[in-house]
Amino acid sequence: MLESVTKNIFQYAAQNRVLNKAARRWGLKFGAAQVVAGETIDSAMKVAKELNDQGLVCTVDHLGEFVSSREEASEATQYCIDTLDKIAETGVNCNLSLKLTQLGLDIDYGFCLDNMKKILETAKKHHNFVRIDMEDYSHCQLTLDMLAELRQEYDNVGTVIQSYLHRSLQDVKNLKGIPLRLVKGAYKESPEVAYQDKEKVDENFMAIIKEHMLSGSYTAVATHDHHIIAKVKAFAEENQISRDQFEFQMLYGFRTNMQVELVKEGYTMRVYIPFGNDWFGYFMRRLAERPQNVAFALKGFFSK
Known about the structure:
Layout: H1 2-14, H2 17-26, H3 41-52, E1 57-62, H4 70-90, E2 94-98, H5 109-125, E3 130-132, H6 140-151, E4 157-162, H7 168-174, E5 180-183, H8 198-214, E6 219-222, H9 226-238, E7 246-251, H10 256-264, E8 269-275, H11 280-289, H12 292-302
Parallel strand pairs: 1-2, 1-8, 2-3, 3-4, 4-5, 5-6, 6-7, 7-8
Helix pairs in contact: 1-11, 4-5, 7-8, 8-9, 11-12
Pfam families: Pro_dh
GO molecular function, one term: proline dehydrogenase activity
Keywords: FAD, Flavoprotein, Nucleotide-binding, Oxidoreductase, Proline metabolism
């Protein structure tokens, strides 16, 4: 019961615009510096290089939510382009992740689509890949619609599917052949659209992983759950699925020993590196996901 209440509090905070705005003035407080790689592109590249040196590959995400003006969305678009240029310049092994709402999805669909095409053109020039993060349920179909339009011109773009949504297995079937990042999901959604029981979420997670892997599609399994990881390893072995067809993904700052161990075992392990001053919503969702993360955050706060 307490865990459920705590989760609801953090999920509410993550979507609170006033708190998000205030947090930009605080800097990386409350342990966030342990899971957010600084506020600049250069700080993110430094972390990516350090992780590459350990055999890990990366994806970077310039954090940002609640964009409400074309000016902000255009600035975010240029920042994504600058990040791709910097990745190419530094030579780090790193993709780009982004959110469509940061690029103006809530302002105008066509405007956001144009912004995405500018980013993908830059990524194509640098032979890089862009991952569209999935946001809350209200943006799910819009995200998939935009992905379908973009895939008509670009093959260097994919998205994320969340296993807690009832629709996800069918979505994965519809997205055969497209590189997908499969996750459990971190937003607060209603029982009408999402499973509320952890066992159901985990069960569906394995179902969508198996579906995408068996279809021959490139699959990124994003989880810190060692039970799920063990099941995926066994499933790949049993079905003779090449390690070149899938990868594991984890968040920067979490289960770092396991990340390195997976590399030693010969698996591709990609670290999701968030950076920027708009860190609050991301950090609150991480605290909501697992109660252990709260202790992790407090430890970081009091150690400063």
